[in-house]
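By way of example, we now present a protein record of this kind:
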Amino acid sequence: MMTDPHTIPPELLEGDLVKAEDPRFGLIWINPNRMHGEPCFFRTRVPVRSLWDYLEGGDTIDEFIEQFPPITREQVVQVMELASEHLLQSPGAA
């Protein structure tokens, strides 16, 4: 089970561009001072792009999680669902 993102010490969220009202909050964080602003899995320095690179290379979600143990299957699935929702959104939808 993922840690409740609302219990994260405020100093860890300082400068983060993903705010509590954003659906990405608790899944990813984006901070210009962390990994050059690359979106990373929440509470890690693992870029979300790495997941897509692994999958594109033929690796499985389990292999990805094995390489980056702080990341959970639940987190990966939620990030993928969020990306899917965005891609399948009707043009002009907010």
Notes: The mean pLDDT is 87. The longest helix spans residues 73-87. The longest strand covers residues 28-29.
